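Onboarding guide, step 5: your first structure request.
Type a short instruction followed by the sequence, for example:

Predict the 3D structure of this protein.
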Amino acid sequence: MPRLVPLPDELRGRAFSIDDVRAAALTPGRLRSPDLVAPFRGVRAAAGAIANVDDVAAAYAVRMPRHAFYSHVTAASLHGIPLPPRLDSQLQPLNSISLDVSVPVGMVPATGARIRSHRLRIASEDIVESRGMRFTSAERTWCDLAALLTEEELIAAGDFLVWRKRPPLLRLTPEALSLAIARFEGRRGRPALLRAAPRLSSRADSPPESTIRVRAVDAGLPEPEVNEELWTVEGEFLAQPDLRWRRWFTTFDYEGDLHRTDPRQWEKDIARVPRLENAGYRHIRGSKADLRNSTNLLGNIAMRLQDHGWMPPPRTPIRRILRSLGR
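The system replies with structure tokens like these:
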């Protein structure tokens, strides 16, 4: 078997167009070598180099029209915005991932296999460029997702974008979101954005936390504090629960897979409960099952609030839940 001609340094580790290969004076036969794959027509990449949706997007960017840009689900992936499983491209087989490619209204749309084409009315400030790709800004991407997400999913995505632990250059401010929503006037999903924006929390550490918070309030429970540190009157640190109803001495933590599989985290979780209970708190833990159906969890929280004097508002879902649980 003839020895493969090494790729030039400038073509290694990235997708490249056939024109790049020709400019490097490589033969057409080299394009058919087994060490290369063709993710899109006219594009080649090293075998194994396309590992996730971001790599697929980087590969198509090689041949993307100059006036086009990524949007919607693809832009959300590039920003790291958490999406529900039904939309998360990271959960799809690589060879079936489709890309959302948009152009401004009046321009010729991009077409081709695995391309979802869109025409958007968009301002220049709503497009950013990074890693050799053009895509909608984080705030504009959140606006576009409003047509695809439920309101609680939209809030979870927004919580991620304003999260206090995000790098300052990536963290969105309420003002930035308000300006983006103003530019989004008249488009599908805008009413949901206007409802969701005031409900975002910069303190939610995960989408499940956001989801439980939203469901609790929508059911009629009081608005909880989010990830606030708890201290004793003597100044001793107790815990930092995901949700806390201060007035009614009730706390909640969502236990993801890390809490189950990491021994150190598991030990911390076990030790936290008696500390909180010794300080007078009723502590509740939730899991993935409570995301599928939150009825029992919300009822358990409500009963603990009731034990400390809270009364459920009339004509709210939590009253029906409590009746079903015999309270």
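Each response can be followed by summary notes, for example: DSSP finds 14 helices and 14 strands in the chain.
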